[in-house]
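Hi X.,

You mentioned you wanted examples for the new student's onboarding notes, showing what a folding record looks like when two proteins sit in one file. Here is a clean example. The first protein comes first, with its sequence line followed by its C-alpha cells.
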Amino acid sequence: MRAGSVWYRVCFVCTANICRSPMAASVFRTMVDNAGLSDLVKVSSAGTGGWFEGEGADLRTVAVLAANGYPDEHAARQFKPAWFVGLDLVVALDESHARFLRYLAPTARDVDKVRLLRSFDPAARKGELDVPDPYYGGIEHFRRCLELIEAASVGLLEAVAEQVVPPGRRGKHAKPQD
C-alpha cells in the first residue's frame, strides 16, 4: 500500500459521465469488491463536461449494467483539476478524454496519472484503445461498451492490486494484509 494514504483512488472519465465512465466505475468497483480490496481501493467517475451534473446514468447504461448483475449507484459530475491531488489513477475512456485530462493536469506527476482504460487490456491493439461512445447508438452499442470495459478491467485490477497488495499476498483470492 502507498505510504501516507488510506485509499488507492481511481477515477474513470468520459464525456458527460452518463454512459461509459459510470459503467466502468460500476464494473471495476464490483471487481474490487470481489477481489476483497474494497477497503483499499476507492472508485469514482466523472465527465469532461457538466451537462448532466447530478443526474443518473443513461437508462441504456442502467439496463445493460442490471442485465449483467452490476449495480447502478451514480450521479453525474464534472471532473475538476483540483481532484488530481487526491487521485492515484485517472482512467480515460478514449483518447480525447486523455488529452483533455493531461491538459488540465497541474503537474507532470498528475499527467502521468492519466491512462486509457483499454491500455490495460492485453488483447487491445495499439491504435484501437478507445471505448467507443455508445450514446448515439442502440442497446447493442452499450453491450459492446460493457464487453470492452470488462476485458480491460481485468488488467486494470491486476495493476491496481500490485499497488495495494503486498507481493507475497497477491493472487486471485489474495486478501490485503492489515
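Then the second protein repeats the pattern, sequence line and then C-alpha cells:
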Amino acid sequence: MSTGTHEYESDPGHWLVMLTLLYFIPSIIAFSRHHHNRTAIRRLNAVLGWSVLGWIAAFVWALVSFRRGRATRAPAAPESLGRVPECAAARLLTDRVHPDLTI
C-alpha cells in the first residue's frame, strides 16, 4: 500500500484555473473571433455566466456574428448563361458588353 500521491491527482489550484477557463469560454471565443459585441458578451458572461441560461446565451451570442446592413448579395448571372464557371461567364459578358461600349 502506497502512501504517496498518485500522478493523476492534482492540486485544487489546477481545478480552479480549469473551471475559470471553462466559465469564460464565451468571452474567449468572442474576443478571438473579434466579435463586434465582444464587450457586451464579456459582461453578460461575467454577470450571468453562473446561471446555466446566462452562460448558454453568452456562448451562442459569441458564436453568432452577423451585422445588419453589411451583407450584400452577389449579382446573379443572366439565365441565358446557364451553369458556367465565373471566368467563362465574365468572358461571355465582356464579349456581349464590350462592342456596345466602343461606340
